[in-house]
Design brief:
This protein is 17% helix and 25% strand. The protein contains 12 helices and 39 strands. A 7-stranded mixed β-sheet has the order 3-2-1-4-9-11-13, sandwiched between helices. By secondary structure, the chain is α+β, with helices and mostly antiparallel strands.
Length: 798
Amino acid sequence: MKAHVAGFSALACLFAGSLAAAQTERALLIGINTYQPAGTTADHPAGCIYGRCELGTFENLDGSVNDAQAMADLLTSPKFGFPASNIVLLTNPASPHPNAGVVVLPAEQTTHDGILAAMQKYLVDLPQKGDTVVFYDASHGSLRVNSKGNKLTVLVGGQYVHADSTLVPSDAYKGGYDVRDREMTRIFNAALDKGVHLTVILDSCHSGGISRGIGPIYRERALAFDPRDINEAPDALPNGQPRPAPTQRTDNAALVFSAAQQDQTAKEMPAGTEPHGAFTAALLQSLQALPADTPASVVYERVKAVLEGSNVPDQEPDLDATADRREQPLFGGAAAKSDKVRAAALGVNDDGSISLDIGRASGLGVGSEFTATAPNGAGQTVQLRITSLDGLARSTAEIVSPAGAKVAPGDLFELSKWIPADNPPLLVSLWPSNLTEDQIDSAVAQVQASGAALVSDPAEQQWTHVLSWDGTNWTLQQAGSTNPVNIGAPLAADALKKALPAGAKLWVNLPPSRELAAALKPAGSDSAVQTASNLAVAHYALTGVLTADGPAYAWYHKSELAAGPPLPNAPPHSPGCSATSQYPVRTDWVPVGSASAVDAAGVKLNHYSSLLAKVHGWLELANSPADASTDEFYSLALLPSNATAPLPVNQTTHQGDQLRMALASEDRVIDHRWVYVLDIDCHGQGTVLYPRDYSENQFPNAADNGRQFVLPGAPVLRIGPPYGVDTLILLSTEQPLADPYVLNFEGVATRGSRGVSSPLEKLLNQTSGGTRGFSGEVPTNWGIGIVTVHSAPNSAPN
C-alpha cells in the first residue's frame, strides 16, 4: 500500500519557505508593544459579548520591539549579510536604535490595514522572482470565531465554535479587526506564485518559545478571542478541493517555524534590562551559535531543546515544511549535509548526567555515544554515552570526555557509535554450508546440463520439486512430500534428470558456500541479527535459487518457506509481499555470479537482514509492549473516505480506495500525548505518515476532539502498490519526538516500494557491525498499538 496526499489545508500561526539560491535578500520585521495608549479606553462594538468584548484593557507588551530590532541586527550581521537598505522595520513604538540604512515605517502603520499594506508591498510587489524574503512578527496573537472554519474551537455562549488564528494589530482596542491567517495566507501565496522564496517567523498567534536567560516569570502574548463571526468557508480551488496551504504547495512550498502549537500561547519576560519574546531569544541564540548553513530542522531541534530545558509551560515550537525544505537553512540556500542522527541536550540533572531529546523510538540502546557538533564555551568537544532510556523520546547520558566538561540546554550532538535497543534479535538460519564456491559452480553446471525447467522465484511461481543440499548429499523432494530422494554427491546431471518426472518445475535451493556463510556471520553475540540453532526457531532462512543469470540468494520467511509452493488461488499481492503476514515473504534476490561477487553479496545480504531486524523489532515492540503505559488513550482507526465507521478488521482494500486516519476511544481522554503513525509496508519499508511536519500532533487539544475524530492535517491514504499486508503503528508519548522522521527506514524488497532510507539506516550501512544494548527500565509514559491493512489490486476478488 502506498500513501498519497489527497489535498488538505492547514494554517497554524506561521509560514516560511525558501527553495533556491537568492538573487536579493529582503525582510519585513514587525514588533508591537503598544496595544492601548495611556489615557485611552477599550471600545467594544454594540452587542459584542464574550471573549475580547469583556476586556477592560488591552495589555501592552514589553519585548516585541526589541525582538524585531534584534532580528534586524542578526540579518544584517556579516554571518547572514542582508543589505540594511532591504530591511524594513515596522514597530510601535518606534525602535529607539534602528540600524543605519534600515527603512523605518511610522508606528501608526501597525494597524490592520497598515500591516496588510506593508506585507503586500514588501513581500509581493517589490521582490522579484528568486528573491529571498523574511517576514517576522512579534505581537499579540489571538483567535476569531469562524463558524465555517475547521480549526480550533472556543466556547461561546456554552457552545463550541471554530475559530481562526489572528495577529492583533495596534488599533484592535478601538474595536477594529485582527489580521486573519487567511488574509496573510493569500499574500504569502501571491509571493510564492511570483517565485519569491519566503521565510515567515511569528512570535505570536498561539506560538512561543524561551531561552534560559529570560527568567522564570512570563507574560502571554495572547489576547482573548474575537467573538464576531467571520462565517467564511476555507478557500477552495476551482475544482472545489481545499486550496493547499503555502507549506503544502507542490511548487515553491513554504516552511513554517513558529513559537508554539496553535492552541498554545507565546510568552515573554515582562521586565528586565532588555525584555524579549521567549521564542525569539531562543531562536537568536541558536542562529548565533550554529553555522549559517545549518538545516532548519536542526535549528528547530536546538530551539525546542532550549525551550524545554528552561521549563516554560505548555509551549512547543512548530515547524511545518516539506522534507526537502526542512533540510535547507532557515533563510534558504544550500545546507550542510549530514546523514547522522542528532540529539539535543535538554538540561543537566542534579547528578551531572545529561537529559537528551532522543530515546527508544530512534532505535538507540544503552551504550550509544554522541559527539558535540561544535566546541563548548571552553573550546571542548564533548562526548556523551547513553546510560538509560527514559521513554520513546528521552534518554539520560553521561559525559565520557573531557572530564568536567559543561553542557548547556540546546547543545547539539551527532551519533558517533550506535548500539541498538535491546529488542529481541532476528534469528536467521543457513542451510549446510560446507561446499566451496567451486563445488557449487560444478553443481550448477550439472543442473543446467540436465535440461530441467527451472523456477527463478519460488515465492511467486509454482514449483513441483525442490533440489537441496543436506550437508552430505543432494536431495530431491516433491512439493507436499516429507520423504526426500537422495541423488548423491557430487551432483550428476543424469541422476537429476532420471529422478525428475516429465513436466517438473524445479526450484534449486542452492546452499551458501563456505565463503558466503563466513561473510554472513553475526558481528558478535549481541548483534541485532543472530544465527538460529535450527530452522524451527528461525524467523528467516537464507534460501538459494538458480536463475538464467546464475545463482542468487534471499532471506525467506520461515513460515512461508514451510507452506510450500504458492497457491494458485492465493490473494493477489506484490512480489516479496505476503497476503497474510506482517513480515515480508522474502528480500530481493542477491546474485552471486562468481567467486569475486561473494563479498559484495555478503554485504547486501547482511544489510537486508539488518533491515528485517528493524521490522522485527517494531513488530515485537508493538505486539509485546512490556514498557508501555496501560493508561487509556486513543487507538488508531481507519475510516473509508465515504464512511464514519472504521474499516472492519481483515477487510481487504483495493487499488484506489481511500482511507482517513482517525483517533478513537470509548471514554473521554484526559491525558495529553503526542501522536505519531508509522507505516511498515509489505516490503518492510517504514514511513512516518503522521504528522506531516513537527507540529499540531498533541491530543486531546483545545479543539474538543471528542471520542472519534480524523487526525487534522493527516494525508488521505490512497491504496496503491505494493499490495499485501501493511502495519500501521500508533505511537503516543508524553514528550514529543525531536525528529519523527528518524523512524523512516528502507524496505528489503524494491518492486513497488517507495525507496526512502533514514539517517539511522544510512549510519547502519556505514558501520561494520552493531550490538543490541541493554535498554534498562523504561517509564510507562507512552503507548503503542497496531492496525493492519490488507490491500490488493483491482483484479482481486471482492
